[in-house]
Amino acid sequence: VLIYNGQLDIIVGAPLTERYLQVLQWSGQKDYLAVKKEVWKTEGSSEVAGYIRHVSNFWQVL
User: Fold this and answer.
1) Cα dihedral angle (41, 46, 50, 52), rounded to 10 degrees?
2) φ/ψ (deg, to 5) at 22
3) Where are the transmembrane segments (predicted)?
4) Could you read off the pLDDT of 31-41 as tens digits, one per residue?
5) Per-residue DSSP letters for 6-58?
6) Are 48 and 41 in contact (CB under 8 A)?
7) 53 and 36 in contact (C-beta within 8 Å)?
8) Which candidate, 8, 15, 2, 10, places its Cα nearest to that of 55?
9) What separation in angstroms does the CA of 21 have from each of 30, 43, 51, 59?
10) Residue 13: burial class (beta carbons within 10 Å; 0-12, 13-18, 19+)
11) CB-based contacts of 24: which residues, under 8 Å, 6+ apart?
12) What is d(CA 43, CA 35) in angstroms, rounded to the nearest whole number?
């Protein structure tokens, strides 16, 4: 499962998605809440491209 949010998305903003994922009840919720976001950089670059968080087969990308 992949949930992708654009940081500047005006329809469903990233904070709204974050909040939803914190209260969504599912089998991996406890593990998801314990995992910290990681900085995502494109290969060969030091520039931040976004942030990722993943647990098992669930990925969140911002």
Assistant:
1) 40
2) -75, -30
3) none
4) 999 999 999 99
5) -TT-SSS-HHHHHHHHHH---TTHHHHHHSPPEEEE-TT--SEEEEEEEETTE
6) yes
7) yes
8) 2
9) 11, 28, 15, 11
10) middle
11) none
12) 23
Residue listed under structure tokens 């593990």 = 31
pLDDT digit string, tens, across residues 14-51: 888 889 999 999 999 999 999 999 999 999 999 999 99
The alpha carbon of residue 18 and the mean position of all alpha carbons in its chain are separated, in whole angstroms, by 7
- Point out which residues pair with 54 in neighbouring strands: 59
Structure tokens at 28: 């991996």
b/e for 25-36, b at 16 or more Cβ within 10 A?
eeeeeeebeeee
Confidence (pTM)? 0.78
